[in-house]
From TrEMBL:
Protein name in UniProt: LysR family transcriptional regulator
Gene3D superfamilies (UniProt xref): Periplasmic binding protein-like II, Winged helix-like DNA-binding domain superfamily/Winged helix DNA-binding domain
rRNA processing is among the record's keywords: no
PANTHER family: HTH-TYPE TRANSCRIPTIONAL REGULATOR (PTHR30126), HTH-TYPE TRANSCRIPTIONAL REGULATOR CYSL (PTHR30126:SF39)
Chain positions covered by the region annotation Disordered: 281-308
SUPFAM superfamilies assigned to the protein according to its UniProt record, in alphabetical order: Periplasmic binding protein-like II, Winged helix' DNA-binding domain
Keyword match DNA-binding: yes
InterPro entries with a match to the protein in the record: LysR_HTH_N (IPR000847), LysR_subst-bd (IPR005119), WH-like_DNA-bd_sf (IPR036388), WH_DNA-bd_sf (IPR036390)
PROSITE patterns per the UniProt record, alphabetical: HTH_LYSR
Domain of life of the source: Bacteria
Alphabetical UniProt keywords: DNA-binding, Transcription, Transcription regulation
Pfam families (UniProt xref): HTH_1, LysR_substrate
Organism the protein comes from: Actinomadura alba
UniProt domain HTH lysR-type: residue ranges: 8-65
């Protein structure tokens, strides 16, 4: 149902109510912060719109006509309903701006997200953050389905149907236990040799696996994995036990390589860099705490650098 063109706007109704309550157009104008001529013009315009006089004017002030009193009574109901609507919208905005649903790939969630969320808490202490961890394919699915306000993925290509921004560059590293033959060899491992070797790998659908498969595609792709694991801790533990080489983010094995529990193995002629991306539904640029978190990802991290 469309409203009649004779229904005044909310501002005009507020002015009428102020005149009725204060008994003067001038006092009503002062209360609402407008000039008296502007208020008088607005009242006359409303009277023409409705088609009848609403005020009896005299040197001592203004009082409502019989019709004006009825219109003021109805106007009060409209204004009260508008205020209730405004309060409800404010509550919705406050609820929206007080929560943030994030889903992130394993590397981002474990090694970058803690610092970002700490900074977000300091900047917006009232924000309730829910963080879920999934592989990059699942992250994209959840953001597309509206189950998260912001997602973080790692992979060679941007997910289809999502807006995105590259926030950092990560590098995959081949690492082995100190007693593994690759830890003691003088020359670099070749890309073809890496492709032919059973490795400890992340599962299909992870950004790590996608980047490695793409990098080794011209050598026939990766061999059948020695192990497929969805946990970074499990991947590193398997490699450290001597089970075989592991391919993970350099962020994930920085401590193990520094302490000697794992040895980084250089691979000749293979680019294992990958972008880390923030993703969101197309056409819905992040707002509120999601936008704030996105801005924090562009600042230097206090932890290991994500460059490479």
């Amino acid at each position: 149902m469309r409203l009649s063109h004779r229904v005044p706007e909310l501002g005009a109704l507020e002015l009428l109510l102020a005149v009725v309550r204060l008994g003067s157009v001038g006092r009503a104008a002062a209360e609402l912060g407008v000039s008296q001529p502007a208020a008088s013009t607005r009242i006359r315009s409303m009277e023409r719109q409705i088609g009848m006089a609403l005020l009896d004017r005299s040197p001592s002030g203004s009082r409502p006509t019989e019709a004006g009193a009825l219109v003021a009574e109805w106007a009060l109901q409209v204004i009260e309903a508008a205020r209730a609507l405004d309060a409800g919208l404010g509550a919705l905005r406050e609820h929206r701006d007080g929560r943030l649903r994030v889903v992130a790939s394993l590397t981002v969630a474990e090694y970058l997200m803690p610092g970002w969320l700490l900074a977000l808490h300091e900047a917006r202490p009232g924000t309730a953050v829910t963080l879920r961890v999934a592989n990059s394919a699942t992250v994209a699915e959840q953001v597309l389905a509206g189950q998260a306000d912001l997602g973080f993925v790692e992979g060679a290509t941007a997910p289809t149907g999502l807006g995105c921004a590259v926030i950092a560059t990560d590098r995959l590293l081949v690492a082995v236990a100190p007693r593994h033959p690759w830890a003691r060899r003088r020359g670099e491992v070749t890309a073809r040799e890496l492709a032919a070797t059973p490795l400890i790998l992340r599962e299909q659908g992870s950004g790590t696996r996608e980047v490695l498969d793409q990098a080794l595609s011209e050598y026939g792709g990766t061999a059948k994995p020695l192990l497929e694991l969805a946990s970074t801790t499990a991947l590193k533990a398997a490699a450290a036990s001597g089970a075989g080489p592991v391919v993970v983010s350099e962020l994930a094995v920085a401590d193990e390589v520094t302490t000697g529990r794992l040895v980084a193995v250089p691979v000749a002629g293979l680019d294992l860099r990958r972008p880390l991306r923030a993703v969101w539904p197309t056409g819905q640029r992040p707002a509120g705490p999601a936008r704030h978190l996105l801005s924090l990802t562009r600042q230097p991290s206090p932890g290991p650098a994500a460059g490479g």
